[in-house]
Amino acid sequence: MTELLRYIGDGAGVPDREVPDGLAEKDLIELYRWLVLLRTFDERAVALQRQGRIGTYALYWGEEGTQAGALYACEERDWVFPSYRQNAIGILRGVAPSTVLAWWRGYGGGHGFYNPRDHRVGPICVPIATHLPHATGLSWAAKIRGDDVASLSWFGDGATSEGDFHEAMNFAAVFKVATVFFCVNNQWAISTPISKQMATATVVEKAAAYGMNGIRVDGFDPIACWKATKDALDRGRNGEGPTLIEAYCYRLKPHGTADDPNLYRDESETAKWLPHEPIGRTSAFLKRLGVLDDDKERAIGDEAKQTIAQAVVEMEAIDQPGREILFEGTYATGMPWTFEEGLRELEEVDRPPEVKPLGPQPGPSTGDHAEPKPGDPS
């Protein structure tokens, strides 16, 4: 099996390696700050879901290294395409955390979404692997225009069973575009283990079938994720085509807040992977280097908590949008008449029915008393 690229020792006999060129002390601290901010968002989002303040939420606890490490390797001009598992990645590029929380609350349009062009972050992709052709297309268009722009897309091991994965890989390799395919192999596609997902021993060996470079990294090591992505982006910019990165890790939490992994896997196995999670491991590594101390660690944690707490306040101050938000942004020049008609029908359905009082109603009145009808008792 392909050896894993790793820089941070795993505490089980694998030693630390020297920090690769390109990461100074300030970069290591900033990378750690990104990890903590992502973790804080994830933990708070789960709490909000349990309190009924947002909808069903997809956790990424333990996979922060695959996100922060890979993104830190990108240039600002590069585009990134997240799946739902990287739902908060935009906050590292200036998207307001409250916007992402509002998206999980079910708000649409400008209330719960961002302009991808402002941040070069594609829409949060819920369908599996459908964003991979978009990442390929963007870097292909950049190549045609002569723009020095690369793309990075994240996806899970389950996405490798989708046609979009294979089509995107094939196009990217044939046209030698600067796309990085970053597979977070956490070994579970909801309740399907990787052993029932593919016959190959690894994800990375699929790269050979498309004639592209492939590398396998420790997905709990953000520095390894950074190094692999940085090298892949450099190759792509030099005209050497795309790269498939397999970040090997384990899904330490449920697939989402509606999932119970106890029903389909042995959680004692999960416990064995828990010590490898990236934040505690990175903190210990940086302390061994003398880059991080307890006071700085505490300050970074407090800053992240304040940022996300403020985001919750901002999210809950947003007025719930009306149904017209359903079609906002769907068309550039107005809606078809059928959409207008549909909105009117929704308004009719939701209009409260006219309530008529029970019992006999008084007749028309002239003066103080109504005139009796013929035959009525006087």
Overall residue-averaged pLDDT value: 92
CATH topology of the largest domain: Rossmann fold
The first-level CATH class of the largest domain is given as Alpha Beta
Secondary-structure-based class equals alpha/beta
Number of strands: 7
Question: Separation of termini?
Answer: 104 Å
CATH architecture of the largest domain: 3-Layer(aba) Sandwich
Series of H and E elements: HHEHHHHEHEEEEHEHHHH
Which band does the percent of strand residues land in? 5-15%
Tally of helical runs: 12
Q: How many strands, what sense, and barrel or not for the largest sheet? A: 5 strands, parallel
- Strand line-up in the sheet with most strands: 1-2-3-7-6
User: How big is the Rg?
Assistant: 27 Å
* Morphology: globular
The residue fraction in helices comes out at 25-40%
The poorly predicted ranges are: none
CATH superfamily of the largest domain: Thiamin diphosphate (ThDP)-binding fold, Pyr/PP domains
Number of domains: 2
